[in-house]
Amino acid sequence: xxxxxxxxxxxxxxxxxxxxxxxxxxxxxxxxxxxxxxxxxxxxxxxxxxxxxxxxxxxxxxxxxxxxxxxxxxxxxxxxxxxxxxxxxxxxxxxxxxxxxxxxxxxxxxxxxxxxxxxxxxxxxxxxxxxxxxxxxxxxxxxxxxxxxxxxxxxxxxxxxxxxxxxxxxxxxxxxxxxxxxxxxxxxxxxxxxxxxxxxxxxxxxxxxxxxxxxxxxxxxxxxxxxxxxxxxxxxxxxxxxxxxxxxxxxxxxxxxxxxxxxxxxxxxxxxxxxxxxxxxxxxxxxxxxxxxxxxxxxxxxxxxxxxxxxxxxxxxxxxxxxxxxxxxxxxxxxxxxxxxxxxxxxxxxxxxxxxxxxxxxxx
Length: 364
Ligand code: M6R
Known about the structure:
The protein is α/β, with parallel strands linked by helices. It is built from 15 helices and twelve strands. The strands form three sheets. The chain has a five-stranded parallel β-sheet, with helices on both faces.
């Protein structure tokens, strides 16, 4: 049921603040994080030394952000890979490794095969799943429920942000078992998380500005998305969303790789989306912006409210409310989803049923 929305995708984008409130209510009370459905005990989790995340598409992009959370908040070394690669490259098994699968549907063929590969090698498997009655739910050693509610639009939106949020909570949870974070720092991060639903609502109000950008983008054939560290996966996800539903070619790159090849693509007709919220890598993103601008590239930037310096340099910008850099992918996702959505609408595409794609990829 689309309710008042033209497409399910738009409805699902707008549901995100409520989904977050639901997850917060379930997972967080005062300063404690809860995973009632998680079958792994604390003793086991405290001993995990390495996490191998395998997933496909948007779920892998979420996993790449999760990897940084695991390293930062749980001090566990983590790696990510496409399930379709992981399953065929004879991955190394070691006693303290935990394999994490991430999937909205719980039915994706490659992710399921990766899970089976891990179990065949006597590794334990934890799956982050939106559909908790799925094959992956049955076959995993333990499961974490994403709690995004049913996602019907082919483009993953609320499942993505719910994946990232649950990975963040999981990393903080494991970190708390190992007493890794000073109380003050922990309180700050949890306060930042509690503020997310209202900040998302603020961003959703900027849809008119995003529609203007979509009008500009709709006649382009190519676009580039750049981000670094926490927002490198955001760049990948922004590009995936745009190509998936608007059929405009889009590629995401880590900002530091720009000069090593992709910069050659930039011209008047190839706009560059610069993801540059406040934080440590902001000045590096300004360098990327200037590299693109001096080659005639039009700049669309995603910035923290009031960043006059980047506004002046941009052809278009969207603002997000201030937040910690590590949390910013959860806010950056929203304007990128809306940008893909309105661009696809401006091109007359059926956003809920993009050509050639299926919601759940159950064959290899
Ligand atoms: O159900 P899954 O999360 O396992 O699906 C993985 C991908 O097929 C999926 O995320 C796909 O990339 C989305 N349609 C992108 O929006």
